[in-house]
Amino acid sequence: MQPAMALRLMLPQQEGHDNSGFALVMQDLEGVFGHYKDKPLLSLACTAKGLGLVDDYMEEKGFVQVAQWVPDTNPRDGLKIEVMQRYVFRNYDYPEIYRYRTQKEREEFLLDTRLELRKLLEEHNGGYVYSFWPDVLTLKEIGDPGDIAEYFDLWKEDGRLCARNIVAQCRQNTNYGIVRYAAHPFFLQGYTLCANGENTFFTRNTEFQKNLHRGYVGFESDSQNLLYTLHYVHRELGWPARYVKHVLTPLSAAEVRERPDGEALEMIRESLSQLQINGPNAAIALLPDGKMMAMCDSKKLRPIVAGQHGNMLAMASEVCGLNAILPERNPANDIYLNEREMLMVDNDLAASRWLQ
Amino acid sequence: MAAVNRIHAQDITVNDLPWKIEYDSASCIGCGACVATCTFGAISAAVASKGTSIAARRQKDGERLVIRQSQSIPEACVGCGMCEKVCPADAIRPVRNPESRWQVIARGPDTIKRGGRKAAHKRTLDSIVVGRISQMTDPALDSERHTFDLRSPLGRVLKPVDLPLKAVGENLLIQGPIPSVRWIYPLIFSDMSIGALSARAWEAIALATAYLNEECGMPVRMCSGEGGVPGALLQSERIRYMILQIASGHFGWNRIISALPKMKADPCAVLIKMGQGAKPGDGGLLPAAKVAPHIQAIRGVPGVTLHSPPNHQGLYSIEEAVQKMHLSLNAAFGFRVPVAVKCAASATSVPVYNNLLRDPYKICGGFFIDGIDGGTGAANEVSLNHTGHPIVSKLRDCYRTAAGQGLQGRIPLWAGGGIGMTGDAAADAFKLICLGADGVILGRLLLQIMGCVGNEHGRCNACQSGKCPTGICTQDPRLVRRLDVDSAAQSIVDYMLAFDAEMRKLMAPVGNSALPVGRADALVATDRAVAEALGIQYAC
After folding, report:
1. B478 with B392, same domain?
2. Contact, B213 vs A302, CB < 8 A?
């Protein structure tokens, strides 16, 4: 798939979002990045000075650049887009000492590096670093999604940018300040998540997550909490992914009592009560192994739908998006998740609907 | 001929007392009900000459019955208004006396003692409103139709990394024990002992507790107070609704310990009382007037004034308190019953909470903080009015300290002291929960719901005297009959049902169906200093 596919999915839903930005995370890449799948890919939007700072930092740390792709841009008058000076996507080889470290150690190192770069760029007002991870590319921009696509020539399907998984959203965070980091989807150590909704337990979630992991930073959007919870439950605690649903929207005490696994669920609810969400939310997540999942809040205040045809499965807030890219599918097979369900999509596109 | 009265400057007259009896002899039918009702001896029947003029006095049959107010300090009218309540002719009532010299004359040689709360003052909670209302970005909920989960933990909550869970395939299996945690209603009927309360009043609260659990689906818990528990209840299934208190006098624990082998169910929890908000640094006080034979029996004490020590003898540090008391009480119930601790709010509450949070045994199952507006059955008035610490910022400080370390929620915070002082317990509870409390404890309001007429403006508050005119805080068998157990329990149940509905009415507009513990962004303060101290938005 190429970004144009994500745009075709998103644009019919324009009435449901505010056209304040466009962002996408692509994972399992082909095209220009196809040969460097094991090399961490840095996704940057920065000033010229910021790029210099990044160059110096990466060199000092011993990273060796092995590839770079700079998107062609088509500036023209009238485009609603707030461009940065430089958009850079680079693959690096690990520093010498990390070539023989464990996978886990490398992953922690990549996170530390991204956090350091973020800090460095913030201190010098030098730009934004979105992801630094093998086989993952992130692009985020403020402006009209159609104009952003035109500027970066994303409508052209020439095979430069291809991925098996794309998570995209056309909404910057308009509740608060316009910040590039606040644009969904959010990424951390192989986990990507975008959400449609309002996390009314933002303060509770944030106060808890700030002390939970060094990578839980920013909090520019109340949906970042959902990504961090997914990361914590699945990666840090090592629990099966579906337990994220038990953490985010736990069953009531009365329901838990009736279940054979009630004791474990009660423990989870008890111990992680600060990570519950309690407002309207629908979320789509992509896991490091390429599996995808989707769920919504416990009252189904925000909907989500999935549809499939041939070798493509798509999930969206509104079915008009699916109609645009999967017109041939049988809509009777579309999955509208209820408030207690979770959709898990395997790499062979087998979709399973799990009832909490 | 009578000598002219001489004036003595030290004489006490009715005008020196805090309440004056307003009496209309023209309406009085002379039934004597007011005199019979007054438990304080503040009024008596007397004979007076008819009319006021000398000429009238000279008439035949010129005498009549009148009601006179006592001029003595021990028999001073407390303003309870029982006389007014029983008077069939609307002829009598107490009136607040603005010229009262009470604070000057009532001391000596002993201190002034009373029950109730600190004198009225401006409350922090009244300058906070629920100001974050869901409207367009996220919908408010429907308080009538949505389901709401009003449950709070009592017990030590482990950090997620410490849970004994292991992923086996797609499931998490339990690999070991965890501390016991009760999920209960976010309001506990606070610790008022049999002794401080009449057995009937205590029974009414226990009855309301059982009814709320069994008929209303509200798992409200009641704390016994430091005065023991009736043997029949100890051996009943309903002991699971009770939190057993152990305080510095250990009153009633000989009975509890002897009952252990016969108990059919575990109590909800054990609460170690270190101090209370109404009179921090002072131990429990049960004047001899209230130590009736049945109180002696349940507490295992002689009929004298019972003054609990100000602290637990033999404990000299938090660490030791944790090791000795928490561990031994946990062990007593086979580690199945959470053990929590109640302290008076204090400038030192945060360090104490920190110590408990960091204790390596992970043994403390709750931190109850009791603020300056808490009520009491008996205290020195100087303690009531001048010692203690406001609860709101203290609760907030404890929550924020824990949150700063990622330890919020590990030891549930329960806040008390003046909850429902204005009658709006749900609003007080909701605001404290948003500021970080897991739940609230409520005591004094229960008495008021049952009929207590005491207030923060000096009315009655004679709980220490044994002469409670409503039968709630007395052991006098004649007076306790004034309290009807069933209707008192029903009043509590009715109030709690309204409380529950009001909690939903507050949760719904902020869009939450689960308790918004620590969700301070739901609140705004209309006082800049309060906003700053609590870290919430200021609005004007």
Report:
1. yes
2. no
Q: With an 8 Å Cβ cutoff, are A208 and B403 in contact?
A: yes
List chain A residues with CB under 8 Å of B143: none
The reply to whether B340 falls in a domain is yes
Whether B408 and A207 lie within 8 Å, measured CB to CB: yes
Compute CA distances B443 → B123, B189, B225, B296, whole Å.
Answer: 18, 6, 10, 23
B498-536 confidence digits (pLDDT tens): 999 999 999 999 999 999 999 999 999 999 999 999 999
Quick check: B405 and A211 CB within 8 A? yes
Closest chain A CA to residue B133: A200
Which domains does chain A show, CATH number per domain?
A: 9-17+29-162 (3.30.70), 184-356 (3.60.20.10)
Average pLDDT of the segment spanning A26-33: 96
- A134-144 pLDDT tens trace: 999 999 988 88
Q: Does pTM surpass 0.90?
A: yes
The total of structural domains in chain B comes to 2
Residues B72 and B143 placed together within one structural domain of the fold: no
Query: In degrees, to the nearest 5, what angle opens at C-alpha B458 toward C-alphas B452 and B459?
Result: 35
d(CA A248, CA B514): 12
pLDDT in tens, B413-469: 999 999 999 999 999 999 999 999 999 999 999 999 999 999 999 999 999 999 999
CB-CB contact of B46 with B66 (8 Å): yes
Please judge whether B516 and A278 are an interchain contact, meaning their C-beta atoms are less than 8 angstroms apart.
Answer: yes
Query: A-chain residues within 8 Å CB-CB of B511?
Result: 198, 200, 278-280
Residue of A223, A229, A239 to mutate for B, most B C-beta atoms under 10 A: A239
Q: What is the pLDDT of residue A99?
A: 87
